[in-house]
Amino acid sequence: MARNRRSLLSDATKIRLAQIQGAGDRVSPGYYGNLTSKEAGSFTKYAVAAAEQALSGRAPDPGAVDRQ
User: Fold this and answer.
1) 64 pLDDT band (50/70/90 cuts)?
2) Which residue ranges make up each domain of the chain?
3) Is pTM beyond 0.85 here?
């Protein structure tokens, strides 16, 4: 049975995060299978930071991950 999970981040935000790390040309809305394992790990780090910011009521700032 397939699960229908709602993401906290929009596809636009996810694509922006991929572009920040230089992998924007290999992702498309809803599909991130072309990322390498290393890129996926970095992407996850950025996505978690953005989700935490969104949950705290702040606008996601992907650049904040680099400043931590």
Assistant:
1) low
2) 37-68
3) no
